[in-house]
């Protein structure tokens, strides 16, 4: 999946969970969107469901920006394909 495709899906999921739209790769979930820990937990669940991955708790707080989620999902996708 291309970065633009990931961004589109992430925008959709963030909107479904929070009602917030208009994201950029540099958008910070906490600082820019003022999400609380429950919002973050709900987003992580949405990411896991949509992308069919498991995100360990130790990785959750590394995903502070949209760009981090895109990079994380691309790496997971590449590992799943054996690349």
From TrEMBL:
One MF term in the entry's GO annotations: acyl binding
Alphabetized SUPFAM superfamilies for the sequence: ACP-like (SSF47336)
Alphabetized InterPro entries for the sequence: ACP (IPR003231), ACP-like_sf (IPR036736), PP-bd_ACP (IPR009081)
Domain of life: Bacteria
Keywords, comma-separated and alphabetical: Fatty acid biosynthesis, Fatty acid metabolism, Lipid biosynthesis, Lipid metabolism, Phosphopantetheine, Phosphoprotein
Claim: Lipid biosynthesis is one of the keywords in the record: yes
Gene3D superfamilies named in the record: ACP-like (1.10.1200.10)
Carrier domain ranges (all copies): 1-77
Residue runs in coiled coils: none
PROSITE patterns given in the database record: CARRIER (PS50075)
Pfam families tied to this protein: PP-binding
Protein name: Acyl carrier protein
UniProt source species: Blautia producta
């Amino acid at each position: 999946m291309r970065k633009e495709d990931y961004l589109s899906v992430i925008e959709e999921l963030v909107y479904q969970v929070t009602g917030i739209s208009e994201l950029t790769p540099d958008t910070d979930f906490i600082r820019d969107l003022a999400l609380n820990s429950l919002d973050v937990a709900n987003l992580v669940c949405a990411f896991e469901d949509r992308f069919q991955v498991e995100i360990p708790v130790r990785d959750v707080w590394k995903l502070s920006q949209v760009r981090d989620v895109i990079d994380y999902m691309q790496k997971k996708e590449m590992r799943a394909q054996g690349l």
